Amino acid sequence: MRYSSTRGQVKNLMFEDAVMMGLADDGGLLVPNELPFVESNLDKWRPLSFTELSLEIMLLFTSGRIPREELMSMVKQSYASFRHPEITPVKSVGKLHILELFHGPTFAFKDVALQFLGNLFAFFLRKRNHPLRILGATSGDTGSAAIHGMRGKQGVDVFMLYPKGRVSAIQERQMTTVLDSNIHNIAVEGSFDDAQGIVKAIFNDRKFKQTFHLGSVNSINWARILAQIVYYFYAWFRVTNDIRERVSFVVPTGNFGNVLAGYYAKLMGLPIDKLIVGTNENDILHRFFSRGEYHSTEVKETLSPSMDIQISSNFERYLYDLTGNSSKQLQLWMDEFEQSGELTVESNLQKKAQQDFASARVDDEEILSIIRKFHQDHKYLLDPHSAVGVCAAEKIEIQTPVICLACAHPAKFSKAIRKALGTEPILPEALASLQNLDTRSKTVPAEPEAVKKVMLDTLEA
């Protein structure tokens, strides 16, 4: 298995190099040169546990660089701290199946990938004679999951950017209460898109990137997508009995990485009918799949803050696939979007996209309504992001069984729960204890040079 950039200038990397590079040196995203087709393995894989299934799928992508026994040990270590024995259990709620992805240490779906990525970095760094400086941006959950996956790791420093005042109070405290010497939180005076833009700008400074050995934990890193592919297979096994049975997945979507993993699972032969993209009022992806218009607008603050995104960093990987893997066409599209903030695809490509995807937009009032409805009808409490997915499922006529991804624990978003139900959610002890801990972070303007200065000052101290 080799990896190449969507922009065409970085080619044929081994798995280790792809993971350590993060964002490709030409500014593109790394993708496998080809995907394995595994339909013939489905019956054999059906009885496997989550960790066993992870091993089988990951071995297909790791270029033979990690011995089977070591990879199995790494996978087991990654999920040992999850609170549910199935890691990502599926529960039937009314007519829907809910894939619960919030049983990891930070109560969010990002734990599934970032616990693994932290151990992957540690494994590769043992063979290298230089440190790794992680630079990332978070709309809320990536930051805490990355920090908890990397804290205390020898040879790793983490610089995590987040939009000041635009993550929930608990999300912020999950990051800023981690006082390990290798963790550095940076509050950016702007939106998540601003923070993400800063990260890309710094990564595109090749001299800075190479001098300080920058790495990425955002879903621009291929290993994030790989780990997330697993739970689509695992969930399909939980709700089907036969290889001929198809299901549809509904995915609350902001940065496109989570639903992209489902798309790759489908290309690998998993019997998926439709992938439903649920957006909040920041609906750039809904406008693309319904009208073919990927047009950026101003970011709106909503009750589902982790999805308050107008530039979906992983969408480039999908656009590359939509072009038939044409780096030339992809580069033209990305140049157009970077210059104008708008990209419109031809109707034939829009129809091609609609063969795999559908979408729905969900506003704050609909989020509150579906939280109330599910709590009253099923005694099941949705977080506001998962509510976007469930509401999207209700808006679209779907002929197959439906699996909705539940991406975060509702206690992380007390504002939305309080508005919906008039009461505070019960905090798990791990979250309640954050209120009494000391915090540490630095606030900077939304400028790459300001972030670089914090990094330099920290590393020189």
Automatic annotation (TrEMBL):
Pathway: Amino-acid biosynthesis; L-threonine biosynthesis; L-threonine from L-aspartate: step 5/5. One of its GO terms (molecular function) is threonine synthase activity. GO terms for biological process: threonine biosynthetic process. Residues 2-79 form the Threonine synthase N-terminal domain. Keywords: Amino-acid biosynthesis, Lyase, Pyridoxal phosphate, Threonine biosynthesis. Transmembrane segments: none annotated. Residues 99-319 form the Tryptophan synthase beta chain-like PALP domain. The keyword Protein biosynthesis does not apply. Its EC number is 4.2.3.1. Its cofactor is pyridoxal 5'-phosphate. Belongs to the threonine synthase family. This is threonine synthase. It comes from marine metagenome.
